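Hi all, long-time lurker, first post. I run a small reading group and we've been trying to get comfortable going from sequence to structure in the token notation. Rather than ask abstract questions, I figured I'd post a concrete chain and ask someone more experienced to write out its structure so we can walk through it together at our next meeting. Sequence below, copied exactly:
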Amino acid sequence: MRIITGSARGRRLLTLEGEDVRPTTERVKEALFSILQFQIEGRRVLDLFAGSGQLGLEALSRGAREAVFVDAGKEPISIVEKNLANTGLGEHAKVLHMDYAAFLLRRNDPFDIAFLDPPYRTGLLQKALPMTAAIMNKGGVIVCEHPVDEEVPDTAGDFERKRDYRYGKILLTVYRHRDL
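-- Answer (accepted) --
Happy to help. Here is the structure in token form:
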């Protein structure tokens, strides 16, 4: 796993080990950032269920103003911190070791981009999505990564499903504010 482009281009990233771990593939990550390519610079990004932090790190490398990494696991948080140090992107990052719901219920400054990639088929995506929509800027975008056979809602608060992008067995579902 590596940073695709930007200020940390080519830097290798540490990843979590284990059978339950499935980092976003290079192909899906490239597609995701092609979808968002002109919407990243200067934006505030949330990497919820951060894992190794590769999505938030890629956004920072491409000019995001700030990335907030949230994960409930100690090991993922340690990996995110090491990846931030290794890429030199830590200055614009906040790493929070906490449950997604506890984070989303806090009073947060709004986000422009949110990445949701929780463990598959656990119901976490369906629970986190409306809570995430509540802390987004009106012009923001929420991107969910999930298997094609996992149902996601058409709406989440004021955000609605705008488009699905299929990559083999994986779907990227993009939500934007209903008025945009």
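A couple of things your group might point at:
The chain has a mean pLDDT of 93.
DSSP finds five helices and eight strands in the chain.
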